Amino acid sequence: MTTQHERHRLGDLLHMPVEDHTGQSAGYVGDVRFERREDNQHGYRLAGIIVAQRGTGSLLGYDRNRTHGPWVLRRFVRWLHRHAFYVEWDDIDAIDWNEGVVRVKPGDFERLRDIR
């Protein structure tokens, strides 16, 4: 399990399997989201992860901007990732770096088409 003082590379988190609270596979870490820190410190903090099915490729930013790129490509990327969902950092129960798995708390997570 991760302690507050351990450091890991983002590349180690990407593509890691994600399990729900029952131990069932929920997909894989397909991407991460950062947000500007609000605690008067410089920089960004990890806000959450995108859980997707393996092999669906990059989101290319199409999940964050409705007007990004040609509409045909935008629709195709959104269709390709139609089962992907966003998990806020506070909803992650644990990251087991030894086993290589992310465990999420119970909850209803937002599908990417529902978040902007």
Topology:
Layout: H1 10-13, E1 17-19, E2 25-36, E3 44-52, H2 71-80, E4 85-88, E5 92-96, E6 101-104, E7 110-111
Parallel strand pairs: 1-6
Antiparallel strand pairs: 1-2, 2-3, 3-4, 4-7, 5-6
Word description of this protein:
The chain has 116 residues and is mainly beta. The chain has a single domain (10-114), classed as PRC-barrel domain (SH3 type barrels, Roll), CATH 2.30.30.240. It has two helices and seven strands. It has helices at 10-13, 71-80, and strands spanning 17-19, 25-36, 44-52, 85-88, 92-96, 101-104, 110-111. It has a seven-stranded mixed β-sheet with strand order 5-6-1-2-3-4-7, with no helix packed on it. β1 (17-19) and β2 (25-36) form a beta hairpin. The model has no long low-confidence stretch (mean pLDDT 79).
The name of the CATH architecture is Roll
Q: Strand order within the widest sheet?
A: 5-6-1-2-3-4-7
Which oligomeric form is depicted? Answer: single chain
> Count of DSSP helices?
2
What Rg, in angstroms, do the CA atoms define? Answer: 15 Å
The CATH homologous superfamily: PRC-barrel domain
Q: The CATH topology, please?
A: SH3 type barrels
The major sheet is characterized as: 7 strands, mixed
Report the end-to-end length measured between terminal Cα atoms. Answer: 32 Å
Strand content: 25-35%
Helix content: 10-25%
Name its key features.
single chain; globular; seven-stranded mixed sheet; SH3 type barrels; 12% helix; mainly beta; 34% strand; 116 residues
